[in-house]
Design a protein that fits this description.
Aspartate Aminotransferase, domain 2, about 350 residues, globular, 2 domains, single chain, alpha/beta, five-stranded mixed sheet, Aspartate Aminotransferase, domain 1
Amino acid sequence: MSGELWRKNLISIEPYVAGEQPKSEDIIKLNANENPYPPSPMVQKVIGEFNTDELKKYPSMDASLLRQAAAEYYGLKKENVFAGNGSDDILATAFRAFFNSDTPIVYPDVTYSFYPVWCSLLKIPYKTFEVNENFEINVEDYYAPNGGVVIPNPNAPTSVELGRDKIIDLLEHNRDCIVIIDEAYIDFGGQSSVELINKYDNLVVTQTFSKSRSLAGMRIAMAFANPELVSYMDAVKDSYNSYPVDSIAAAAGAAALKDREYFEETRGKIIATRDNFITALQAMGFRVLKSKTNFVFCTHPKYSAKDIFEYARSKNIYIRYFNKPRIDNYLRITIGTDGEMKALEQILREFVIK
Ligand code: PMP
């Protein structure tokens, strides 16, 4: 048919699917790894006192306030810090800036499902390596030459951490490509690789304010790398949107970083709730992976994960089920408050004991 040829040039893409965002207040939402606690009171103060007159001007091009606070937090220079609208924005920027080789980039087969989406959007060739039956990454797979490496640490949706020795091994065997460590969940018990940027000039570490700092709705994240790599990310950012973090977000993010006490208190609560919840799951016969995140990844030898997911949903508790190879009998459950986890425990007990 004439006049329809443009269709063949339309983008062909399978978009990332996020956890459902139900509107009802009655729902217990444990499906998007959000933090159940509000942001630091300092964030509320900064937003409340924000001089709206400032909003008539464009924000600082480099989110200066936020970069400075992030540098101070980690004892680095401001030139080591990049800021963006959530780590998805930063990761997409880094993929554009660093993954321009014809050799495939590599990442685990079970991992954050946005990576293949960006690869197909940006036409980056990629290859995956299988994690083992315990969902652990085998670093030796990554010794072979590649166009870049991206690894979430701890991994998502598995919650499994790759230890410091293994990260160093990975970096030692990948000196000729950029290695991105996505530390979205690092604050819930993992060991950060940020300080390694001083030793490895090809390392980029990304972190987000969406999880441990309760600011998912504000879209703020930071990345750490040597100044040269940061300047390449800035160049990419400035080429499509030179003002990535708005003025209120930059002020709120800086306030969140400064309130260490509140950060320690809330992440401590989530870790304690998680460990109690894991014990309860195990008592019901679930197999639970060792979690270093604000979620758990589990399976039950006798019941289908999909059935459990649907049962919990029918009781207004939303958890996450992925209908994907290797993980289609697993559930990813975000850690909420103690009360929310007790409510879920009760529902799960009803289901497995019946
Ligand atoms: N990386 C991983 C591994 C994640 O699970 C998420 C959350 N969906 C992100 C990055 C993105 O988080 P945000 O854009 O909210 O910073």
